[in-house]
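Hey,
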Amino acid sequence: MVDPKRVVSYEDVLNGLNEPRKVIIDVRDPDEINTTGKIPSSINIPLGNVNTGLSMSDDEFRKHYKQNKPSADDELIFYCRSGRRATEALDQALKLGYNNSKTYLGSWNEWSEKQK
């Protein structure tokens, strides 16, 4: 079970799209994203790469993901299709010291439904 203070809502994600201190991370595989689309401004770090990606140097991260690496103070918001993988990614990020990390349990399923 996820700590409720680590869970964000659809509205939280929607309001955080253009906030530089909020980093929305899609942990689905790239082929899933190519099929369905993604939340605007989110970056794709598949679940199996979260630990490695967040452990990269700033330069490595920028080269690989084409944007600046989040700082430990940034709010990371993880999502996937239904919330399960996002919760796993949250656990990994917290262990790496990203203490402001959260999960969007509604994930893509809820986002895509509310965007119709």
